Amino acid sequence: MSSSSSAMLHTSPLRRYALLASNPPASTSYSTRAMAIELATLPLPASADASKFADFGREVKGVNLGSLTEEQLKEIQELLYKHDVLLFRDADVTPEQQFALTKAFDPTSAVYGHGNNKTGKTTLSILHPDLKTIPRVPQVQLIGNGMVYNHEGLAEAKLKHPHHKTFHKTHISDEDEEKGATRFYRWHIDAALYDLSPPKVTTLYGLSVPRGGKQVCRYDDGTGDELEVPLGTTAFVSGRTMFEILPPELKSLAVRSKVRYAPHPYVWMAPAHAKSTGLGIENEGLEMSFDDLPPWEQSKVKTFPILWKNPVTGGLHFQVHPCGVSELIVDPLPADAKKTGNELYPDGAHIKDLGAVRDILYKMQRPAIAPNLVYPHDWHEKDMVLFHNRGVLHTVVGAFKEDQVRAFHQCNLAASDDPIGPSEEDIKKWA
Ligand SMILES: [Fe+2]
């Protein structure tokens, strides 16, 4: 049975979208046949709490990503903001097409999310070893693991899957790793967090995907939490869920707060070590002094609301890249707020103590990376994943051996604007 006829038999989880090319002018040769986009829920692992993923993630079927019609593109954009992660299987997409698809979400964006300048002192950035550019389309990066030859104009590229040992304060023993234990590497948003605006979408295309046994991602934070994951998964959590599961006093704090990122945050944090959950930095005082950073300007430092408003659903997503934050700025409660006595910082605050800032953010973000709230994508070759970079946090997971060759194309573009925070009504509702 074809997937479309099975879709007609089962009302859920498949929904059918029939998009007709609307009234094509008589002089053109547009086809008027139905171009159907079909949606299926993503296959959740047994660990996931399905009730928390009702709107999260969809597989999109029935489109050719390399040649989308205007109508399909519009529909896909809306679907991305509604569902945060979209999967297209068996996609055939060139780097040029991937760039065009990514750019379609923000037509005036042009440079890679971290910029294209990899010279000078920015080579100190912790991201530097992970990024290799496709020469023809410098906005598309080749990422993965192992040696790749004659790839899209690159004679050879040595790729290295990021390993938690290079970033976390504590490490899994070689013996446990041999048995399949691993960690979340670094929960993040794809964003420079200095000068450039956070990309709206990231496109991630799996070209070569080594198959292997499951690994067990350990949190190692005293909770005993762990999560079985496919080898080399990309793990996602919803920023909307991150906000929704908070108790009222932390919702109030989130809706009133902004974070200020350090200048050149990836250079600043380079000497520091991450927590065992990959969700922020340990307080060891190892960050670089602002005076030792590459030249920077106050006007390019980024201060963002903690909550970013979804342009389609109006929902609020808790979008903080915890590693790069240096300050927390809290607005006072609105004058007419009903007080319960539990409010945090009712008169507002500007918190510059790094330990305090990190403790507050961790308290708010850690609940959302609980094993039952994580979607670990099980990659297959030719999977194209689009994720709403302003609506989710994600992380690399796992460890490969040197001979396990993984090659992915990744693209995101520094956006043409900064994210929008909560509206006045949002603040009224949640503060
Ligand atoms: Fe990323």
Automatic annotation (TrEMBL):
Pfam families from the UniProt entry: TauD
Protein name, entry field: TauD/TfdA-like domain-containing protein
GO molecular function: dioxygenase activity; metal ion binding
Gene3D superfamilies: Clavaminate synthase-like
Native organism: Cerrena zonata
Cofactor(s) named in the record: Fe(2+)
Key words, A-Z: Dioxygenase, Iron, Metal-binding, Oxidoreductase
SUPFAM superfamilies in UniProt: Clavaminate synthase-like
Residue span(s) of domain TauD/TfdA-like: 55-411
Similarity annotation: Belongs to the TfdA dioxygenase family.
